[in-house]
Each structure stands twice: as C-alpha cells, then as structure tokens.
Amino acid sequence: MTKKDIVSYDHEELIQEIKDLGERDYRGKQIYAWLHKRGARSFAEMTDISKSLRDRLEEEYEIAALDMAARQISKTDPTEKFLFGLSDGNQVESVLMRHPYGSSVCVSSQVGCRMGCRFCASAIGGLVRDLTVSEMLGQVYQIQKITGERVSHIVVMGTGEPLDNYDNFVKFIHMASDKHGLNISQRNITASTCGIVPGIRRLAEEGLQITLALSLHGSSQEKRKSLMPVAARYDLEEVLEACDYYFEKTGRRVTFEYSLIAGANDSDEDVKGLTAILKPRKFHLNLIPVNPVKERGFQNPGSKKAQEFENKLEKNGINVTIRRERGADIDGACGQLRRRYASGKEEK
C-alpha cells in the first residue's frame, strides 16, 4: 500500500484526516504542530500522542523527510548551499542567505526545469519532475534544523519554474505563511517566473501578498527569444501586460530580474530598451551579473561594466540595483551543485 504524504496536508485537511480516523480535532492540531513547528521526522517523536495512534500513522502515512547530501559554506559571504536527497533518489538544491534583516532560504520548486534558459545550469538535462508541497517545505525545515536558525524570508528562485508546478507552489505559499506552521509573512515571500502568462494571471486572482519577480533578461522580444525559449510562446508585450495585471489585482509591485551577460544584453541599446519597458511602470530592476556555467559559455561582464550599465539606467530614471553576488565560491548558479554531485565529482 502506498503511504499518504502527511506533510502535504494543510491544517484543516489534516484535522479532517485525523477525525476520519476516529480521533478528536485536537489530535490533528497536535500532529500538525509536530510536523510544521517542531519539524518531527518520525511519528515516534510525537510523545504526547498515544502509541496506538502513532502505530496507525506509521502504517498509513509517511513523513517525506529530506536528507542532506552535501553542504557548502561560502568563505566570502554568509551564504550556504545545501543539496538534499529525495526519497526517489533525486536531489534538489537550496540556499541559505543571511542578511541584516534576517535569514532567507532560496527554495527549488522542481527537480530540473523544462524552460531551457540558455544561461542557466538548472535547465541542463530538462525537467525530471515536480516537487511535492512537503518537499518544498522540507527544504526550509531542514535548513532551520541543521543551522538552528529561524528563517524569516523565502524566495522561490531555485531550480524549476514555480508556475509550471502551480498547485503545489500555491499550496506551499499558503502553508509556509500559515500561523500554525512557519508563519512567514507573505510579504516576505518572493517567487520568480520566466513569464508563464496564464500562471501570472491566475496567481493574481489568488489573493496572495507575495512579491512576483519576472525573469526578464532581455530588453526586447528578440533578445528574450535568443536567451529564453519560453519567449517564443509568450510575447514580451503580453508578459508585461500580465505583470501589470498582477500589480493591479494585488497592489504588489513586480520586480524584474535581469541576468547581465557580457556581450549579450549589456549594450547601450539594451539600456534604451529597458528604459522603455520600465519607465512607465516604476517597477524595480535587479541586475544580476551572471554566474558563469561552463556548459553554457556565457560570461560575467565584470563589476566595472555592471556599474556603468546601472549608472546609465539610473540617469534615465530607472529604479535599479545590482544584486550583490553571493555564493560564487560554492557553485553559485542554481543547478551546479546538483550536476557536480550527480556526476560523481562532489568531494566526499
């Protein structure tokens, strides 16, 4: 018999599930707290629950815990990268970033990615499968348990396209922000999309207060198509209209992410194109000097060129910052650690 994934039940679902076993409401609440507040990895840990109920839970349900396969600690900044093993033998990456305002975890939403962005290590090898709600939550729970630190912010910017795993992603947001669990403010959660137009519009209707980040990466439709195959399906104009709709429905300004690639999208022509896109919207632009991926061949433009590009945009009235490079010495680009580990090159 296939066991049920108990960690993927939200608070009300779990209470009802436990009631269906003939137990009282409070038992479901206790079990939920063990799973989502105390991070229990086994039913045996739930010492205030009867042994008969624990035995039944063990028979019918599983706690799909992640196991740490590798951990890298940056020597240059307060960043750590984790590789977690999943129950089916796949691996997924997560990143812990420490800031003056708190600790942030970058969560993956899929094993691999089908979007195929040409500068991204995550897309090499394509999509393997979606992550479950419990596997997304588990990345945060495990990092909190390993480090002993409370996570205050979440960014869904790791491997995968969250809107390609829509239902699990949205349920993850609800559970991560639930007062009965992590209780992270939705305003402290950011999710990145490469521009899945129907998903952006659907997300706008969810009533969430998360920040949406669009992976723009090109200053025109043609530039985007040369770097992001998804742009062939969704024209830049309709992507921008979907972002405007998200702002209109939620009141949350969209952030635009722009991987700055030497010789590909860092020219004066690109400054003009970005100005035309951004000036009417007053959205924020994050410039991200690209982390080189050897299989891709794209190069970082260097700090001087990046600063010049930022200055030109600022002179045009664009709200822009260069994102501080983190984790460059620990396989900074999403997907690099997973690929090294899978190829047997990870140091033991």
- Which structural class do you get from the secondary structure elements? alpha/beta
Mean of pLDDT: 92
**Percentage of residues in DSSP E strands:** 15-25%
* Alpha-carbon Rg, integer: 21 Å
Major beta sheet, specifics?
10 strands, mixed
Low-confidence runs: none
Q: Based on DSSP secondary structure assignment, what is the total number of beta strands?
A: 14
What is the number of helices?
11
The share of residues in helices is: 25-40%
Taken in chain order, the helices and strands follow as EHHHEEEEEEEHEHEHEHHEHEHEH
> What best-fitting shape do the alpha-carbon axes yield?
elongated
Distance between the termini: 36 Å
Question: How does the SSE layout of this entry go?
Answer:
Blueprint: E1 4-5, H1 11-20, H2 25-36, H3 51-60, E2 61-62, E3 67-73, E4 79-85, E5 91-99, E6 102-106, E7 110-112, E8 127-130, H4 133-147, E9 151-156, H5 166-176, E10 189-193, H6 197-204, E11 211-215, H7 221-227, H8 236-250, E12 255-260, H9 268-278, E13 284-289, H10 303-315, E14 320-322, H11 336-342
Would you give an account of this structure?
With 348 residues, the protein is α/β, with parallel strands linked by helices. Helix content is 34%, strand content 20%. It is built from eleven helices and 14 strands. It has helices at 11-20, 25-36, 51-60, 133-147, 166-176, 197-204, 221-227, 236-250, 268-278, 303-315, 336-342; strands spanning 4-5, 61-62, 67-73, 79-85, 91-99, 102-106, 110-112, 127-130, 151-156, 189-193, 211-215, 255-260, 284-289, 320-322. The strands form three sheets. Strands 3-4-5-6-9-10-11-12-13-14 form a ten-stranded mixed beta sheet. It has a two-stranded parallel ribbon with strand order 1-2. Helix 1 (11-20) crosses helix 2, helix 4 packs across helix 5 and helix 6 runs parallel beside helix 8. It is elongated, with a radius of gyration of 21 Å.
